[in-house]
Amino acid sequence: MNPTFVVLANLTDTAEQAARYAAVLGEPLHARVALLHLYHDPLLDPELATVTTAQAYRTQAEVAAGLADMAGRLPAPAEVTVSVQAMPAAVEEAVQRHQPLLLAMGLSTEHDLLDHLLHNQALPVLRATHRPLLLVPEAAPPARVPRRVVLAIDAERFTLNAAARALAPLLRAWPAAYTVVHVAAAHERQAFPGQRALGQVHLSGLLPVATPLELYEESHLSPATGVLQALDDVQADLVVLIARPRSFLGRLFHQSVTAQVLRHSRVPVLLLPAEAPTLPGWMPGLS
């Protein structure tokens, strides 16, 4: 069975661009796209009114028809689901049904709406599924199969979870060059941090051991600024960031490197969930 990418979609150009990115990135694996729309009547749910002000009010049938048209314009087989369930239940049902390799959504450049999407959609999706999440900025260039991918790796060790490791065949299928970016933090005291970052990527299993990796190191800029500078310098098509479990509690999109990169990146950001670190037997867990 061909893999599936689930895209959180609505009737906006930003959502269609995210869906197109999902379709194009999945082409090497002949992936299918499943468009998932969370339908809430703003007349019954006034809290959503500010999110829908840019769109005329549409009935559920009109939304489904519009999404079907969108699906027909994608360069991959696609289907549409319009759900009236709350976010966690709708996403859980879609994950159970499709077992997707990743989930995707578009990001608006409008600050308040971006914050709403990150905190009320992207973060709950990560919490509920612990699956890779592709975030496509509104200003992203037209979708194409990546030719150069940046993997931004800090000094902290990580182990990708099973869902992130399952994405390895997709990354291997892209005809891409991979650059590991390490921006030294002010508190970092380890020797050869860039080489450690390369080693972590090799140990992660995300790419074959023989994959050539370029190293980009920066020590004079803040982590987020350094990553963004690297994207420009290497002309990257995509950036990969590691999402650690503790970040799912709320810090991931609040004053973090990930948040800053998402707010300013002109290329899609792929978040790969990591496993929680295993505590030694003698160390008590925190509850």
UniProtKB/TrEMBL annotation:
Family: Belongs to the universal stress protein A family.
Name recorded for this polypeptide: Universal stress protein family protein
Pfam families: Usp
Residue ranges of domain UspA in the record: 4-137, 147-272
SUPFAM superfamilies: Adenine nucleotide alpha hydrolases-like
